[in-house]
């Protein structure tokens, strides 16, 4: 990659200066992650080959920031081809300095909220929209604002966005009326939309309202934005309906120009596939006919306490505070403290671990606790001002009661990265103790037929545990999801979809 030209060098200095005036937490909340120069160039070079060589370019960036994509446009496209360039930026902190930077260039930088702007008439629409929209999570968007955005997107493209939708999805939907017929759009957005429930309306838009051309997913170990834990993708589409038999290119790793892997997937297969991130590494999923883990196990997340430090204690902590040990039950520590994949038990059911922890397990009313366990009552009163008002605690009755999660014989780590010792992001642990787990694990409770077989055959548990750990990483990743930095996560429903025909073969035929 050649060195940036003078205007790009000045833009990078401006970006650094503007970013330094805001805290990382503030930029995370506002979803402000600047596009690196190399990535912006890669995107515009791909746009160049998508458009007819003699077509004058009408360029729009609905969230322009300091102008990373516009700067790349100037480097990639001949000046004579750029007929019009417009950018929107809601934050004056970036917009005003950027407007000064681009004085003398043919960029109309509007200091406005794109989501409230009026789309142009047909003759004024844009044939190239490139955008890295703000990654603002749904809980930072007020109810009235969500309602406004949902209504506006419905008017723009006929799609109703889900309540958990992030702001970037609204940007994509609203831009539909700004894109000219047969125009090209390239959106740099988080890859999570391909797997999560709120991404379903976005996927239906891409399949039914436009012609989805390509989705390039970057290697999650290669963060595109150093201060954002997101796995990024570039979504390309053309504004016209896809024809029968249309195929979509999925690529992964490397760059847009030179991906590590690539595969074409029939659009009709995408209609039935819940997890698009399986492509291009995996082929189109065959219709499952055999049993899955969900046929043998009820799978649940572990306990979400609301405040682990307050509710989970060591034996020494319990003794020091003179708390009643009979109101605490054993709980496994986090995965990094569980070095073995088989948890043996002491005579009382406590796990044989160097780090033994216990969770408060009490549903008695406070008056009863005050009468029978005054030291525990004092402990609860001391923590009540801070802990009882926390999100999870304030919806529990009493506020210190925990979810009912008995010990499960099999547990799986909820998230992780492949590492030198395990090489797998998910570990299955055979739990022979009476310890429950926190929500960093998934709990696999055998359903009645399997539970009966386990009761009759003590060796069966080890055989099943062996099978669980033999499941190919590729199979697990095909059901789970991935975030920036190579962080993998598995939800209960996703784990339940994993094929498990081998378990059926282990059970008595009757």
Structure explained in plain terms:
With about 500 residues, the chain is of the alpha/beta class. The protein has 3 domains: about 230 residues, Vaccinia Virus protein VP39 (Rossmann fold, 3-Layer(aba) Sandwich); about 170 residues, Adenine-n6-DNA-methyltransferase TaqI, Chain A, domain 2 (Alpha-Beta Complex); about 40 residues, no CATH class. The chain has 19 helices and 20 strands. The strands form 4 sheets. The chain has a 9-stranded mixed β-sheet, with helices on both faces. Helix 4 links the parallel strand 1 and strand 2. About 0% of the residues have low confidence.
- As residue ranges, the low-confidence spans are 224-229
What is the CATH class designation of the largest domain?
A: Alpha Beta
Strand content of the residues, in percent?
Answer: 15-25%
The average pLDDT score comes to 91
Structural class comes to alpha/beta
Just name the CATH architecture of the largest domain.
3-Layer(aba) Sandwich
Terminal CA distance reads: 66 Å
Q: How would you characterize the largest beta sheet?
A: 9 strands, mixed
Shape: globular
| Record field, number of beta strands | 20
Compute the number of structural domains: 3
CATH-assigned homologous superfamily of the largest domain: Vaccinia Virus protein VP39
Q: Return Rg in Å.
A: 27 Å
């Amino acid at each position: 990659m050649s060195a940036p030209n003078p205007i790009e060098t000045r833009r990078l200095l401006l970006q650094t200066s503007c970013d330094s005036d805001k805290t990382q937490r503030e930029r995370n909340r506002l979803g402000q992650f600047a596009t690196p120069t190399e990535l912006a160039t890669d995107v515009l070079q791909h746009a160049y080959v998508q458009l007819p060589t003699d077509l004058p370019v009408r360029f729009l960036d609905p969230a322009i920031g300091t102008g990373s994509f516009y700067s790349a446009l100037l480097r990639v496209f001949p000046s004579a081809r750029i007929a019009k360039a417009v950018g929107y930026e809601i934050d004056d902190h970036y917009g005003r300095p950027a407007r000064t930077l681009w004085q003398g260039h043919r960029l109309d930088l509007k200091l406005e909220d794109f989501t409230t702007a009026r789309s142009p008439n047909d003759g004024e629409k844009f044939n190239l929209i490139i955008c890295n929209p703000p990654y603002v999570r749904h809980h930072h968007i007020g109810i009235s604002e969500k309602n406004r955005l949902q209504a506006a997107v419905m008017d723009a493209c006929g799609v109703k966005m889900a309540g958990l939708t992030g702001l970037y999805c609204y940007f994509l939907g609203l831009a539909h009326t700004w894109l000219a017929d047969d125009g090209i759009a390239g959106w740099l957005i988080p890859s999570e939309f391909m797997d999560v429930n709120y991404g379903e309306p976005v996927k239906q838009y891409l399949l039914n309202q436009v012609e989805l051309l390509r989705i390039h997913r970057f290697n999650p170990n290669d963060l595109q934005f150093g201060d954002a834990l997101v796995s990024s993708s570039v979504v390309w589409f053309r504004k016209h309906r896809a024809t029968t038999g249309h195929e979509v290119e999925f690529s992964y790793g490397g760059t847009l120009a030179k991906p590590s892997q690539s595969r074409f997937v029939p659009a009709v297969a995408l209609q039935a596939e819940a997890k698009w991130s399986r492509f291009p590494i995996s082929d189109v999923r065959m219709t499952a006919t055999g049993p899955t883990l969900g046929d043998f196990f009820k799978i649940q997340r572990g306990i979400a306490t609301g405040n682990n430090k307050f509710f989970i204690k060591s034996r020494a902590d319990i003794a020091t505070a003179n708390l009643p040990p009979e109101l605490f039950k054993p709980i496994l520590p986090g995965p990094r403290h569980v070095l073995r994949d088989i948890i043996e038990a002491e005579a009382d059911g406590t796990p044989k671990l160097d780090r033994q922890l216990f969770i408060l397990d009490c549903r008695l009313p406070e008056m009863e606790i005050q009468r029978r366990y005054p030291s525990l009552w004092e402990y609860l009163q001391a923590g009540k001002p801070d802990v009882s008002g926390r999100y999870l605690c304030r919806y529990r009755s009493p506020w210190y009661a925990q979810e009912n999660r008995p010990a499960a014989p099999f547990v799986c780590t909820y998230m992780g990265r492949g590492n030198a010792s395990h090489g797998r992001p998910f570990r299955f642990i055979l739990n022979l103790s009476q310890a429950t787990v926190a929500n960093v694990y998934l709990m696999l409770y055998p359903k009645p037929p399997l539970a009966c077989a386990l009761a009759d055959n003590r060796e069966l548990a080890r055989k099943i545990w062996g099978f669980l750990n033999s499941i190919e990483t590729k199979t697990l990743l095909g059901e789970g999801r991935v975030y920036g930095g190579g962080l993998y996560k598995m939800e209960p429903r996703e784990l339940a979809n994993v094929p498990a025909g081998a378990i059926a073969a282990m059970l008595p035929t009757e």
